[in-house]
Amino acid sequence: MPKRVAPDTKTCQCGDDLSPYFKVRLVGWGPNDVRRFKEYSEVAQKEISKLRARNEFLESEIGKYQCRSENSSSSNVLMSNSISMQESFANSQTGLLDNQKEFLNIPQGVSTGGPTSSFPEESNRLNVSADGMTGNEGTVDTFQTTEPGKVNVPTGSNVVSDTMMGQESTQPTHANFKTTQVLINQPISGVSMPTPLSSPTAETTHSKSSLTELAIPIFQTQPLSLPEAATKSDWFPLAFSFVNISLGPEYGAFVQLWTSYELATLDAPKTKGLKANFRPPELSKWLQRQRYNTPSNVVVLAAERVRDFGQAVRTYWRTLQPSWRAIAPDGKTLLITKDFGKEWKPLNCHGVNGWLSLITCLKWWGLGLEHFSGDEQEALRNEWLALIADMSWMLGGLYSHSQGKKR
Q1: Final residue of a domain: which of 89, 104, 119?
Q2: How many CA atoms, within 13 angstroms, populate the side-chain half-sphere of residue 272?
Q3: Looking at the structure, do residues 177 and 269 belong to the same domain, yes or no?
Q4: Less Cβ around it within 10 Å: N or C end of the chain?
Q5: Is residue 156 domain-shared with residue 36, that is, in the same domain?
Q6: CA neighbor of 260 nearest in space, from 187, 313, 323, 309
Q7: Whole-angstrom Cα distance, residue 340 to residue 344?
Q8: What's the average model confidence in pLDDT over 258-262?
Q9: Do 152 and 213 lie in a common domain?
Q10: pTM for this structure?
């Protein structure tokens, strides 16, 4: 960890060294810290380019509709479309600086200047179904996330959750779903959920031929708001800010569910953290470097590491399961069953050493998907969404269990 010194005794001026896009004054940072920040800034600059291209497209479409509105009998309708597009463009511009700071996790006291970044363009599907794995009876089941806060799973007593422990998913499965809802979230005051822009279906696709058919990327859903009740915690606000980024409604729903769980246990006795066996190496190093409290403690997955990291996270998650959790005959695939068990000790870990580690892994993995595109990105994203769904199911059960014990 870099040694902290007073600003008036030692400073490191890194603006010219990093890139023309960022002017940063960092206090007490060493060469390794600067190198890691440079790597992260390169990722951000790629997203700047993507956002600029999108904004140029929006501007051109706005111009087309304005020209058409001047010569059309349906000018009111066209002008309304034009105004909507202008608002969309303005909203994109307004939130750029905040998104850049959030993307880079820049600490307070470090100023930035220049263009800003957004998050990666993703599949235009608002919700993508996750592959089902073969269960005991040799059939393939599929579940999908249909809205923030809920996960749909196929009806039946045993349903396979595609956490893909030790396996690689190659083809996404899209099918007609027969589903039943499993509640994974309890609403809390002060937290706003991201809202899908349209009714999601597994078969929905969007054309980019015109602005009216262009779907807003899933990564541009708005982050959540910190509940007022959380401000009395000495650790939660900073941890919440660290994981509260725009990675889609499924991720946002999971962060909100975690928030509900942590708020319900703020006054509870401290628990031991999640066990350390089989932790991904990136997580172990991050924990050793004081987690989110150290500005330079940044993890950026290289493209060649994303698949293996996802595999490591799935393996770690499987080792944390309580004894009642059903596992398929392959010994690796976790099953979603009709009822929860009563023993939750391995996962009943609130506080700074608990579920925060799992959400942090999902954050790194989700950001790492930016390295890929097309079908490859979709397949990898399906694996990521499947694990979010499984973790959400278990955290929902744990939250209900903890609330039941209070009564």
Answers
A1: 104
A2: 6
A3: yes
A4: C
A5: no
A6: 187
A7: 10
A8: 91
A9: yes
A10: 0.49
